[in-house]
Design a protein that fits this description.
Number of helices: 5
Low-confidence stretches: none
Shape: globular
Structural class: alpha/beta
Helix content: 40-55%
Largest sheet: 5 strands, parallel
Strand order of the largest sheet: 2-1-3-4-7
Length: 165
Amino acid sequence: MPIRKIFYSFHYQQDAWRVGQVRNMGVVDGNKPAHDNDWETVKGGGDRAIKRWIDDQMFGRSCTVVLIGAGTANRKWINYEIEASWARGMGVFGVHINSLKNAQSETSARGADPFSFVSLNGQRASNLIDSYDPGWSFSAAYHTIKQNLNGWIEAAIAKIGRAHV
């Protein structure tokens, strides 16, 4: 199985710590996160600069993994990342990360499906894109993500090929 380069989409302020756990699993090669200062600089350039930064981060990636936390759904840039990934022919799927712990060792509420807020090919993205819920306990969620992430990526890449035919 080839090593895939992945774009991670997530709500930075609420879920950066949880996302770090997924990145540190070492299962796939993911995009590097923007640090607070870098992101503030990008945001300062307005919407065009943000889109350009996202597009640059997506370059050369084969799949987008939307890491779903309590506040991920219907955020402007998450929606853009889903739409842009689909338009580029990238695999796309979501994983609920609310059972992973934050820096204070807290889990969070399960977030809404972000794909239900985006339209692709004239229908809700939730009809086209899969989401996975790895479980309610930290241990189960962590191990389920680690064991299944590669398979979910390959399934999303295969599915996108069928969806664009």
